[in-house]
Design goal:
single chain, alpha+beta, 2 domains, 3-stranded mixed beta sheet
């Protein structure tokens, strides 16, 4: 066999392997993407977050985390945290994502924590609200849409 024929045979083998890997990856993505089974049911939720006087929180960016208070189904199956961006111009949110974009939050109660970026690094809310361990915000998906109220810092 000539050297050029050997190169073509080697390239054909690489192409076949790449084709097989690609087909396998597409099949896996298709199966995962088309699967509507989730270990916990989700429901769409929406709402608004603002200071307790109703004014908009002056943040450049804000993300809410919805930490489900549901117990694990087994040692390997824990509820996922849902997250969404807040429209900082008016405090509204409506695209909570847990398993797939904007699918909602897991049914039941959640601790809600807030991550934000504010101008000049200012603190725009009490620190307790930024951790799922200390946040006093608790919501139930049965009560959506939510009206989340944050105490306004004295400096505002």
């Amino acid at each position: 066999m000539r050297p050029s024929a050997l190169r073509h045979a080697a390239n054909d083998g690489k192409r076949r392997r790449l084709r097989d890997i690609t087909r396998g990856a597409v099949a896996v993505l298709f199966l995962v993407g088309c699967s509507e089974k989730t270990p916990y049911g989700v429901v769409p939720v929406s709402g608004k977050i603002a200071y307790d006087d109703g004014s908009v929180i002056p943040a450049e960016e804000m993300i809410l985390s919805f930490r489900s208070m549901e117990p694990p189904l087994d040692p390997k199956t824990h509820p996922r945290t849902g997250m969404c961006r807040v429209n900082v111009s008016d405090g509204t949110f409506d695209s909570v994502t847990t398993y797939a974009h904007a699918d909602g939050a897991i049914r039941g109660k959640h601790k809600v924590s807030v991550a934000y970026r504010a101008p000049s690094g200012k603190q725009v809310m009490p620190k307790d609200y930024t951790s799922e361990l200390t946040t006093p915000l608790v919501v139930n998906t049965d009560e959506a849409p939510f009206e989340l109220s944050i105490p306004k810092p004295a400096s505002h």
